[in-house]
From TrEMBL:
It comes from Paeniroseomonas aquatica. Pfam families: Patatin. This is Patatin-like phospholipase family protein. InterPro entries: Acyl_Trfase/lysoPLipase, PNPLA_dom. It comes from the Bacteria. A motif (DGA/G) lies at residues 267-269. Gene3D superfamilies: Cytosolic phospholipase A2 catalytic domain (3.40.1090.10). Keywords: Hydrolase, Lipid degradation, Lipid metabolism. Residues 87-280 form the PNPLA domain. The keyword Hydrolase applies.
Length: 410
């Protein structure tokens, strides 16, 4: 999403910027009141007690869910459980074409596993349901990440009017229509079946009222049978991809003390760029006293680069602010990957990381540029078929051209 931030920010240049921002602060956008802060964490969404988790809080709820997952797996698998595989998909906007291509290439080489857990943030959230349901959904991945035009994702508003009268610089109603087309009742039913088999699909958003990350348990929502489950799932996906300021936030309807309320949710990347499980949840405690430890691998897909691009930054407000934001988001993602790596090492898991290498050099003409996304999709698929997709540890960050596509395994 960094390129989109830069493009949107570039429209703000001019002497009227400060005036417009001040006027925008006077605008009033109506919404229902947020639920009381002290009650929000325990609210059962749609009456589903395990519809979501708070990864920055106590890990007991996540531990219970993981234990239930293992119980269901053991119930359907006599003897020792097979190796476990976990997939974590990062955000990245139109760079999500990389992860989509990688998965289809993985199918082509015949080694793609069934993932016990799939997590997704932002663009990764849009990939995650297809990745979770398996290779049969690869045509949908290809369609979403190679056939889109910018108008299929967002409508850019005129800057002065957007600042004065709107929640964001872009209208994401086209993106919601796309989600409605791809995420239907059949998909929800398929996710519910996999949840009953002991598999988890987790999507991250950020609760802006509380300034806290939220992990949504899509399988539990799907299995609830609630008539509003499909709409909630779609809105979670939209919220996870809604960059604050660039895209409008998504309001999630909740009820407290028999009164309706609304929570404001935005891009999960406002809190974390990619996630697996919090370090406070020690996965070793879930394995029990198995004579032979179950092999486990966490596969992390960063829909972005690990290197940084040097530039001569103008001494202007917008240039400095946008460059600083890009730097903040980049190293937030690098830190998230390092945390997953260290947690996997502690808990005896294999770690694999894939990212856009310095050898991909095609330039975007605009956000969600179709030729760019097609080239990136093919690049991701080719890295997999060429056997060059996975690193065994996070690489050192370097300037553009200095980061190897694959750091040497130790």
């Amino acid at each position: 999403m960094l390129k989109l931030h830069r493009r949107l920010a570039s429209g703000l240049r001019g002497s009227a910027l400060i005036l417009l921002m001040g006027l925008a602060g006077c605008a009033s956008i109506l919404r229902l009141e947020a639920p009381p802060t002290e009650a929000t964490v325990d609210l059962p969404i749609l009456g589903i007690p395990n519809a979501r988790f708070w990864p920055d809080g106590a890990p007991e709820a996540l531990r219970r869910e993981a234990a239930t997952m293992l119980q269901r797996q053991r119930a359907r698998t006599p003897g020792a459980l097979p190796p476990a595989n976990f997939l974590a998909l990062s955000g990245g906007g139109d760079n999500g074409a990389y992860g989509a291509g990688l998965l289809t290439g993985w199918t082509a080489v015949g080694s793609r596993p069934e993932f016990d857990v799939v997590t997704g943030i932002s663009a990764g959230a849009l990939i995650a349901p297809f990745a979770f349901l398996g290779p049969g959904y690869d045509p949908h991945l290809r369609e979403v990440f190679t056939e889109l035009a910018p108008r299929d994702v967002l409508l850019l508003r005129r800057i002065p009017f957007a600042l004065l009268f709107n929640l964001a610089l872009a209208d994401t109603s086209p993106l919601y229509r796309l989600i409605e087309q791809q995420v239907d009742a059949a998909m929800l039913a398929a996710i519910a079946r996999e949840y009953a088999r002991g598999r988890l699909l987790l999507i991250g958003t950020t609760n802006l009222d509380l300034q806290r990350p939220v992990v949504w348990n899509i399988g539990a929502i799907a299995a609830s049978g609630h008539p509003s489950a499909l709409v909630l799932f779609r809105r979670i996906l939209l919220a996870s991809a809604s960059i604050p300021g660039a895209f409008p936030p998504v309001l999630i309807d909740v009820e407290h003390a028999s009164r309706p309320h609304q929570e404001m949710h935005v891009d999960g990347g406002a809190a974390t760029q990619v996630f697996f499980y919090p370090p406070a949840l020690d996965a070793r405690s879930l394995m029990g006293a198995a004579a032979v430890p179950r092999p486990r691998t966490v596969w992390v897909v960063r829909n972005g680069r690990m290197d940084v691009e040097g530039a001569n930054v103008d001494r202007g407000l917008v240039s400095i602010a946008s460059r600083s934001l890009a730097t903040l988001l980049h190293f937030s993602g690098v830190g998230d990957i390092s945390r997953i790596f260290l947690t996997a090492q502690r808990d005896g898991m294999e770690f694999r990381l894939s990212f856009i290498g310095s050898n991909f050099r095609m330039e975007r003409r605009e956000p969600f540029d179709r030729p760019y996304m097609r080239a990136l999709f093919d690049y991701g698929a080719r890295k997999m078929t060429d056997g060059e997709a996975w690193a065994t540890e996070p690489p050192a960050v370097a300037t553009l051209g200095g980061t190897a596509d694959r750091p040497a395994a130790r």
